[in-house]
Amino acid sequence: MYPALPNQLTWARIIAIPIFIGIFYLPDAWLSDPQKNLLSMLLFVAAAITDLLDGYIARRYRFSTPFGAFLDPVADKLIVAAALILLVELDRVGAVIAVIIIGREITISALREWMAKVGASRSVAVSMIGKVKTVAQMTAIPMLLYHMPLFGIDVHRVGTWLIYLAAVLTLWSMVYYLRKALPQVQRGVGVGVGVGVDVGVDVDEGEEPTEAAKATRPREKAPAQLP
Question: Distance between CA atoms of 176 and 191, rounded to whole angstroms?
Answer without folding.
Answer: 22
